[in-house]
Amino acid sequence: MTTLYTRLILCVFVLFAIPISITDIRSYRIPDLLSLPCFFIILAIRVFALPESLPGHGGAALFGGVLFFCVRLGTRGLGIGDIKFAALVGLFCGLPGAFLAFAIAALTGIAGALVRRRLSTENSGHPIPFAPFLSLGAVTAYCLSGLF
Asked: Are 90 and 68 in contact (CB under 8 A)?
């Protein structure tokens, strides 16, 4: 039964993460219209079907939100949507998966920025949409969660 709900959570996250990532690539915005319903659907599944997972996953959501809020204080690159999406990734992955998800997102984001800089003909100061990297990190960490 637990496997059914963990797969359901993965499907819900992916169904929302794809349009969130596409929207972020196109407009550099993460719409609340997508991220907040996903957060509350996954929260409801955890509360009603997997209540034993709630402390670790709720703590990871808080960790993700606070971490990205602190990063936002030090840089102009992250927006409020990134903070909310980081909280969603935390709720999705739990602990310690959120650590891995954020590490993968950071490393792939840096690689993406370096490739973009290398391929760009102009001196680019354009922002990098971070939701695709967070999505990649989250799904990778979630799929690897059975290993740790």
From this structure: no
2-27 and 131-144 helices cross at what angle (nearest 10)?
160
Any idea what DSSP says for residue 31?
Answer: -
What pLDDT does 76 receive? 77
CA distance 86 to 39: 10
100/145 Cα distance (integer angstroms): 9
**Are residues 79 and 116 in contact, defined by beta-carbon separation less than 8 angstroms?**
no
Chain centroid to Cα 42, Å, comes to 13
pLDDT higher than threshold 60 for residue 148: no
* Closest of 10, 9, 95, 16 to residue 48, by C-alpha: 9
Domain boundaries, the chain: 2-147
Q: What is the pLDDT of residues 40-64, one digit of tens each?
A: 999 999 999 989 999 999 999 999 9
> What's the CA angle centered on 17, arms 14 and 20, to 5 degrees?
155
| pTM for the structure as a whole | 0.92
30 and 24 Cβ atoms separated by less than 8 Å: yes
